[in-house]
Automatic annotation (TrEMBL):
<feature type="domain" description="6-phosphogluconate dehydrogenase NADP-binding">
    <location>
        <begin position="3"/>
        <end position="162"/>
    </location>
</feature>
<feature type="domain" description="3-hydroxyisobutyrate dehydrogenase-like NAD-binding">
    <location>
        <begin position="165"/>
        <end position="283"/>
    </location>
</feature>
<comment type="similarity">
    <text>Belongs to the HIBADH-related family.</text>
</comment>
<dbReference type="Pfam" id="PF03446">
    <property type="entry name" value="NAD_binding_2"/>
</dbReference>
<dbReference type="GO" id="GO:0008679">
    <property type="term" value="F:2-hydroxy-3-oxopropionate reductase activity"/>
</dbReference>
<dbReference type="InterPro" id="IPR029154">
    <property type="entry name" value="HIBADH-like_NADP-bd"/>
</dbReference>
<keyword id="KW-0732">Signal</keyword>
<dbReference type="InterPro" id="IPR036291">
    <property type="entry name" value="NAD(P)-bd_dom_sf"/>
</dbReference>
<keyword id="KW-0520">NAD</keyword>
<dbReference type="InterPro" id="IPR006398">
    <property type="entry name" value="Tartro_sem_red"/>
</dbReference>
<dbReference type="InterPro" id="IPR002204">
    <property type="entry name" value="3-OH-isobutyrate_DH-rel_CS"/>
</dbReference>
<protein>
    <submittedName>
        <fullName>2-hydroxy-3-oxopropionate reductase</fullName>
        <ecNumber>1.1.1.60</ecNumber>
    </submittedName>
</protein>
<dbReference type="InterPro" id="IPR006115">
    <property type="entry name" value="6PGDH_NADP-bd"/>
</dbReference>
<dbReference type="InterPro" id="IPR013328">
    <property type="entry name" value="6PGD_dom2"/>
</dbReference>
<feature type="signal peptide">
    <location>
        <begin position="1"/>
        <end position="17"/>
    </location>
</feature>
<dbReference type="Pfam" id="PF14833">
    <property type="entry name" value="NAD_binding_11"/>
</dbReference>
<dbReference type="InterPro" id="IPR015815">
    <property type="entry name" value="HIBADH-related"/>
</dbReference>
Length: 297
């Protein structure tokens, strides 16, 4: 069992830290805004008042923050990870950031004797709570092997994808697939409802056929209830689509459907839906299909 500093106790980070504590690891949590460590403490973990306090003496440091600027903020500087973690520490970044940020972090950390794995996750809040996340990992194979007890406490599908940055590249592809799936699901829902079909029955049978997907299984109940409490916020998916768009341009890949999905997500954020779950793409299709006029709005 490891001593783990877990930085970032948000929608995803908090249940991940809890699962690590339940697996027997000694977990010390830190969050930029206070008051997010209650679940971890209840599971036997501890709360730190600063990054430096959390990482001193840790075998493993885990970061789970929103984007590249936040990763850089917690990693660099006199109060950051690299200046306060001891040599030999394994830094696992579960955030979804640009591949280049991961490559740069690994290089800077190596100068301090700190090993790094980029290990973004997929599965949303439900996957984090259930400990069944998919984890795509970039970095040295030996470090990946050393991290398996940590990964196994939070994930069900854990794959070494290649060198530093490879995990983030695979995550970008994941977000591309999820975005297009969510948009297709939203369009199907509106089509079904306007056709007068029982939506619950339709989604049930679609889930058992070739149209079935994890997206449909995870999002069906929320869509039926029009409950868009965030498991993964639209504003974060908007950030991720920027990552995949830029990365695809760099390597010369063309993403026609992805470009449309990225614009629709951007539109949803611009309308003020950024804090909702990414399944709230449905609201945009409803708007385009005249739901407000039909309902007297």
């Amino acid at each position: 069992m490891s001593t783990i500093a877990f930085l970032g106790l948000g929608i995803m980070g908090s249940p991940m830290a809890v699962n690590l504590a339940k697996a027997g690891h000694a977990v010390v949590g830190w969050n930029r805004s206070p008051g997010r460590a209650d679940a971890l403490v209840a599971a036997g973990g501890k709360e730190a008042g600063s990054i430096a306090e959390a990482v001193r003496g840790a075998d493993v440091v885990i970061t789970m923050v929103p984007a590249s600027p936040q990763v850089e903020a917690v990693a660099y500087g006199p109060d950051g990870i690299l200046e306060n973690a001891r040599p030999g520490t394994l830094l696992i970044d579960h955030s979804s950031i640009t591949p280049q940020t991961s490559v740069d972090l690994a290089k800077a950390a190596a100068e301090k004797g700190i090993r790094v794995l980029d290990a973004p996750v997929s599965g949303g809040e439900a996957g984090a709570v259930e400990g069944v996340l998919s984890i795509m990992v970039g970095g040295e194979r030996a470090d990946f092997d050393a991290a398996r007890p940590v990964f196994d406490a939070v994930g069900a599908t854990v794959v070494h994808c290649g060198p530093h940055g490879a995990g983030q590249t695979v995550k970008a592809a994941n977000q591309l697939i999820v975005a297009v799936n969510l948009q297709a699901l939203a369009e199907a829902v509106v089509f079904l409802e306007k056709s007068g079909v029982d939506l619950a029955a339709a989604l049930e049978v679609l889930g058992g056929g070739l149209a079935g997907s994890t997206v449909l299984a995870r999002k069906k109940d929320g869509i039926l209830a029009r409950d868009f409490a965030p498991g993964f916020k639209l504003e974060l998916h908007h950030k991720d689509m920027g990552i995949v768009t830029d990365a695809a341009r760099t390597v010369g890949a063309t993403l026609p459907a992805g470009a449309v999905a990225a614009q629709l997500i951007a539109s949803a954020v611009a309308r003020g839906d950024g804090a909702l779950d990414h399944s709230a793409l449905l609201r945009g299709v409803e708007l385009l299909s005249g739901y407000g006029r039909e309902q007297g709005a």
